[in-house]
Amino acid sequence: RRSSSSSRRLGLTARSLPQVLVQELEQYQLLPKRLDWEGNEHNRSYEELVLSNKHVAPDHLLQICQRIGPMLDKEIPPSISRVTSLLGAGRQSLLRTAKDCRHTVWKGSAFAALHRGRPPEMPVNYGSPPSLVEIHRGKQLTGCSTFSTAFPGTMYQHIKMHRRILGHLSAVYCVAFDRTGHRIFTGSDDCLVKIWSTHNGRLLSTLRGHSAEISDMAVNYENTLIAAGSCDKIIRVWCLRTCAPVAVLQGHTGSITSLQFSPMAKGPQRYMVSTGADGTVCFWQWDLESLKFSPRPLKFTEKPRPGVQMLCSSFSVGGMFLATGSTDHVIRMYFLGFEAPEKIAELESHTDKVDSIQFCNNGDRFLSGSRDGTARIWRFEQLEWRSILLDMATRISGDTSSEEERFMKPKVTMIAWNQDDSIVVTAVNDHVLKVWNSYTGQLLHNLLGHADEVFVLETHPFDSRIMLSAGHDGSIFIWDITKGTKMKHYFNMDGQHFACTDSHGHLLIFGFGCSKPYEKIPDQMFFHTDYRPLIRDSNNYVLDEQTQQAPHLMPPPFLVDVDGNPHPTKYQRLVPGFRRLSLDIQSPPNIGLRRSGQVEGVRQMHQNAPRSQIATERDLQAWKRRVVVPEAPPGMFRRLEDFRIERGEEERNLYVIGRKKKSFQLSQKSNSVVSVSQSRQRTCRRKYANYGRRHAGRGELSSGNESSGSVRHVSRRTS
Fold first, then answer.
1. How far apart are CA 489 and CA 563, in angstroms?
2. Distance between alpha carbon 248 and the CA centroid of its chain, in Å?
3. Higher-pLDDT residue of 710, 206
4. Which residues have a Cβ under 8 Å from the Cβ of 245 and sit 6 or more positions away?
5. Residue 6: its pLDDT value, please?
6. Cα atoms in the 13 Å half-sphere on the side-chain side of 685
7. In angstroms, what CA-CA distances link 116 with 113, 120, 121?
8. Which of 100-104, 233-237, 574-578, 692-696 has the lowest average pLDDT?
9. Is the pTM here over 0.85, yes or no?
10. Secondary structure letter of residue 205 according to DSSP
């Protein structure tokens, strides 16, 4: 009783507090006075004050804070962004000045101290980066340091362009590293795939055979094969060690849209997957030991109506799940954990074509991007794929976009996960990159800088803070996505290196350190055999028309420029297998012929080739024994393979156990339905038993069994 009475008193006090406040304001004349037309002041009541200020809403003060807060954040950044409070102090105060935000410079002793057994965490807005000397001195004293302090994000500002090399005659839309990071592959619209050295920019080999634009490339996890798909509807596979053709795969009737090697690593059997504009998904089986491909794929034709195309694909970490996107808005899921791949789901949440899809780096989640202006983060739970919606129309507080941009229909152009899967990034057709929390779907940052659509998003292989973007504006940006800041910007130009290509046929190599090794190569690098005519057999394998040899067995080629003129001998030594090369060029050089439009320069090299090329049998044997792309180190290969096997087993168990649980639940539900049906049948038998006996002599109902049968049919329909 005492507690209930005290609570009533408290409630009465709370209700009467506003009334007491109003009374005291009026009693002590604290309210603003009213002025009459003669300028005389008059006291007024609280109600009169409210009536004279009808434009002031109940949340007027809150709206003021919401408007002022972002403006102040831009001028003087707070400790915690997008958190505004009237009661804030220090860097969170609305009255803060630049003087209040000066950071305290940490001394060496601060880096040497351990906080609960861990190195200290730097404040998000620490300011200028700390001294690396003090950081590493603290590491020597304590034995540990965090990656973010030992390698601050500002280090990426020291990345520079080592070399810009012209190596193709058409646009280059495919570029990839091998599994070791020592080699770069480029695939161009001039039908060629080229192999380059990451560390000095040398052109190592040209893979010929395709008759149309290269649409996608993939390197297997063992670093022994490269596959290239083309608009000529053919997939060609080469051995990376010798550049010999391994397979010519013809299973599509449309252009190849994506290629993926499966990470699944159980036994010698492997899979490669291709999708095509013909609406099919092809699973190509190959043997790890013999490198032989099955000539006929397991094909899924996903064409519910004419014109449907498969656009993209992505494997899970363990290789058990494959997700594909298409023009009919459907995401199709495949499972590879049984004897043969099988389709397990069709997800129809998007309302426009799904042209970007990517599994996370460690887990069973994947991200899909669509032209409907949304992206979805999917997760496999209880044998169902459930998603978190990311709406590109979502705005961040303090957004200053124009009205035209606000009414533009958003479309997702590219998607990416960061290295630890905590963040996803989406590129939108309004040139903005949006950074999202992958677990909650909260929009964290808008990254502004591009002036055209972005179609390249690449995450750093081991630094979860860093993301690279490139677009049609010719710009390359390196971002710190945890802070939402721009680290470095380049214009038209493996963790320590990154490579870019452009629509003019250039390869651009960026990295840390000295560029001196790249100064030894010319700006234009072609082999004189790059564009020589090929002849094809019935299986689409190719021979060089002039020498009647397979391209990988031909003698070492010459290095020439874009006009077809051979480079000096000092550059010819860069050709793998070069030993002794003698040139006798009696025809005039093709100075600027390609640029003037008379001939296509290097394309005419079979008519303007060097007259003599002296290569001994020893030279040819050395050329054949060359190793263009080395295999992955055995220790690293085994460690990564064990990881993929472990993840594959987890994914298989996740799906198999979930399917068993679901089938068990369905069987229980069906048993309960059957028991209800049988009880209804027994009731019907008792109800109509006498009716059957009365009419048995008339032959209207011959037996009780037929009666129960008709009732069973009814009961099934009822249930």
1. 32
2. 29
3. 206
4. 209, 236, 237, 238, 239, 541, 542, 550, 552
5. 43
6. 13
7. 10, 9, 12
8. 692-696
9. no
10. E
The residue assigned the tokens 């507080």 is 397
Residue pair 675/342 in contact (Cβ under 8 Å)? The answer is: no
Question: What contacts 557, CB < 8 A, 6 or more positions away?
Answer: 206, 527, 528, 529, 530, 575
Residues 6+ apart with CB under 8 A from 64: none
Of the candidates 162, 180, 147, the residue with the CA atom closest to the CA atom of residue 466: 147
**Which residue reads 């005389």 in tokens?**
40
Return the residue matching tokens 């707070």.
Answer: 78
Phi, psi of 637 (to 5 degrees): -60, -45
Q: Read off φ and ψ for residue 366, nearest 5 degrees.
A: -140, 160
Collect all residues with Cβ–Cβ distance below 8 Å to 620 and sequence separation of at least 6: 555
Neighbours of 369 (CB within 10 A): 29
pLDDT tens digits, one per residue of 305-323:
888 999 999 999 999 999 9
What's the 3-state SS for 591-640? CCHHHHCCCCHHHHCCCCCCCCCCCCHHHHHHHHCCCCCCCCCHHHHHHH
User: Tokens representing 690?
Assistant: 């006498």
Q: Kindly state the greatest CA–CA separation across the chain.
A: 118
Question: Which amino acid type is present at position 637?
Answer: F
| Helix/strand/coil for 469 | strand
From residue 390, alpha-carbon distances to 246, 327, 354, 412, 450 in Å are: 43, 20, 14, 10, 21
Look at residues 604, 621, 588 and name the one whose alpha carbon lies nearest to residue 528: 604
Contacts of 490 (CB under 8 A, 6+ apart): 161, 475, 476, 477, 510
- Please name the residue that has the structure tokens 């999202």: 436
Burial of 425 (0-12, 13-18, 19+ CB in 10 A): buried
pLDDT at 3: 45
Confidence check: pLDDT of 681 > 60: no
Structure tokens, 406: 């606000």
